[in-house]
Amino acid sequence: MVARVAQFLDQEASYEQVYYLYSKSEELYGNLVSAEDWRAADESDRWYSHGLLIDPDPRFHLSPNLITCMNLRRVLATPAFKAYMSAVTGLPLGTFLPRTVHRMRLGDVVGPHNDSGQGTRLGFVMYLSPAWKADYGGALHIIGKNGVFFRIEATFNSLLVFDLTMQEAHYISDIRSTVGDRSRLTLTGLFRDP
């Protein structure tokens, strides 16, 4: 199943490249900026750049891989998955907030931030890039409230779950030139604190 999802996301999906700046985070429509503005901004102001899944490529509507991906996303939104996540973490969980699929390529980065605002409690990342190597970059770094630092590599077919209230911030290191034309693909989600 995961191989089908990965194939859909890598070869059959369409993405929009988005760019965000920290300095624009308070504006009405968020911090989305043009590629030119992002590149012209001071590096310390660059929050993130990555591709967001927008649609299946029209050539692949209703492909078996797309249907598998849709089924996986449907399962993640079920009460059974929420109950599983609550049992695994020992945390009571509120509403599931589906996020999206992120595609990161050469030069993409996600700067330090914390998703625990707006009552969110638990985050998860499903890694969907077969044969991804640490040498390509894209490791998730978590800075705990106690100063403990964690580095998690993007290992294919793994699910990372973390308590957003127990961290100061997290970020994703940049994607390096060793990646070639490969993509770091993830599916993410959040649960609210009940």
Topology record:
Blueprint: H1 2-12, E1 13-21, E2 32-33, H2 35-40, E3 46-56, H3 64-76, H4 79-89, E4 96-104, E5 109-113, E6 120-127, E7 140-144, E8 149-152, E9 158-163, E10 167-172, E11 184-192
Antiparallel strand pairs: 1-2, 1-3, 3-4, 3-5, 4-11, 5-10, 6-9, 6-11, 7-8, 7-10
Helix pairs in contact: 1-3
How would you characterize this protein structure?
- The chain has 194 residues and is α+β, with helices and mostly antiparallel strands.
- It has one domain: Jelly Rolls.
- It is built from 4 helices and 11 strands.
- It has helices at residues 2-12, 35-40, 64-76, 79-89; strands at residues 13-21, 32-33, 46-56, 96-104, 109-113, 120-127, 140-144, 149-152, 158-163, 167-172, 184-192.
- Strands 1, 2, 3, 4, 5, 6, 7, 8, 9, 10 and 11 form an 11-stranded antiparallel beta sheet that branches.
- A hairpin with a 4-residue loop joins strand 7 (140-144) and strand 8.
- The radius of gyration is 17 Å and the shape is globular.
- The model has no long low-confidence stretch (mean pLDDT 91).
Query: Which overall shape is indicated by the principal axes computed on the Cα atoms?
Result: globular
Round the Cα radius of gyration to an integer and report it.
17 Å
- Number of DSSP helices? 4
Number of domains: 1
Give the fraction of residues assigned to helices: 10-25%
CATH superfamily: q2cbj1_9rhob like domain
Global mean pLDDT: 91
Uncertain residue ranges: none
CATH class: Mainly Beta
